[in-house]
Structures are given as C-alpha cells and as structure tokens.
Amino acid sequence: MSVRTPDADDDNWSDDSEWRSDENRAPLSDSGNSINPAWLSDIELIQIRQKLPLTYVEAVPVRLDGLGRVVEVGLLLRATPEGRITRTFVSGRVMQGETIRDALYRHLEKDLGPMSFPQLPASSVPQAVAEYFPSPSITQYTDDRQHAISLVYVVPVTGTCEPRQDALEVTWFSVSQAISESVADELEGGRGSLLRTALGAIGALP
User: pLDDT, tens digit, for every residue of 26-63?
Assistant: First the structure.
C-alpha cells in the first residue's frame, strides 16, 4: 500500500498533501522563506524532498502491566485526503536543532494529547529503523512523496490519550490483535511488518 509518512506538526492539508495548520505553519518572511530556520516552507520542503532523505521518528504507544509486560498496543485511526480510513503510528519529522528525544516527545504529545504521559526510553537507540521510498519501493515500506528514514520506538504511556491533529481515535489492541493480518492490512505503508519488528525487539511478541 502506498502512503505518505504523517507529519504530525501540521494541521491542514496543503498542496503538498501535508497536514498543515495556520496556527502551526512556519511564519514566512517577505521572500517566502521561513523566519524560524527550524521550519520549512512548503516550497522548501518540496525542493528538499527532491534532493535529500528526511528523518522521522515514529512511536508505537503501549500499555504495560505491573510486571512491565506489554498488554495493549495503541494505533491511530486516520482519514486520508482521498477519504480512506487507515491505521498508523505516531509520526513526524525531526526538526533542525531538535534532539531525537525532544522530537519523539513533541509528536507523542501532539498526537495523543498532553495528558498521555509517555515514558520515553532512557536510550535513544530505536527498536527498529525503516526506510520509506516512493512506490515501487526498494524496501517493503512506501511513501509516495519522498525518501524518508524513520527511527521507530515502542513507548509506554500511563495517562489518558485524546487524539489530536488528524487522528480520529486511538484504538487499543491486545498484542495478538495488533499483529494480526486484519490489522496489518489497515496499517499504512507496510507498517504491519514494522510493528512486529518493533514489538519483537522488546520481547513483546506472543
């Protein structure tokens, strides 16, 4: 399935199929360039995507039992501009000058809400690394817009998740349900396989 990599720092779809909001849009100078050098204007983003891979972080929210075992896996339900309903991870770009941990926390808070209380890992080493390519992809992961490199983390959350941005809801599955073929078919861009890899890295597969 071909898909974009979600950019959770945006709030409305622009011509580049990005989720972009007037509130969160990078302020532009008179020349049309971003005033904040950490942000990219729509034009800059298109140009960079034609020349360089972009770095993303992705997070799989999980709930743990008292022994630290994964008992539930949270997946976002999203509506695409084409009207399709799909499932995906928390995801977004790493900004210039931003640490991986800061980017991970920012996107978790934006997608799950400020009361989700994510427990970030002590190490910035991801559970998996995915390379997204436009279709046909030379890997099993696809993003029609770009070549993207994504660092994937499994992140426990202890609070209340209230989806924001373009997420319709957070659906909680048992581990067995989350890695089932039916759920994998609903996940964007080959993330069904990626989910199994990430959960397997922490010994959470049944």
Answer: 444 444 444 455 567 889 888 888 899 999 999 999 99
DSSP structure string for 69-119: -EEEEEEEEEE-TTS-EEEE-EEEEPPTT--HHHHHHHHHHHHH-TTS-B-
Return averaged pLDDT per consecutive 10 residues of the chain, 206 residues in all. Answer: 45 33 38 54 87 95 97 94 89 93 95 95 94 89 93 97 86 97 94 97 96
**pTM (two decimals):** 0.81
The count of other CB atoms within 10 Å of the CB of residue 12 is: 13
What is the CATH superfamily name and number for domain 42-201? Nucleoside Triphosphate Pyrophosphohydrolase (3.90.79.10)
Tell me the domain boundaries of the chain.
42-201
SS3 content of the chain, % helix, strand, coil (to 5): 20, 30, 50
Task: Give the residue among 127, 126, 206 at the shortest CA–CA distance from 174.
Answer: 206
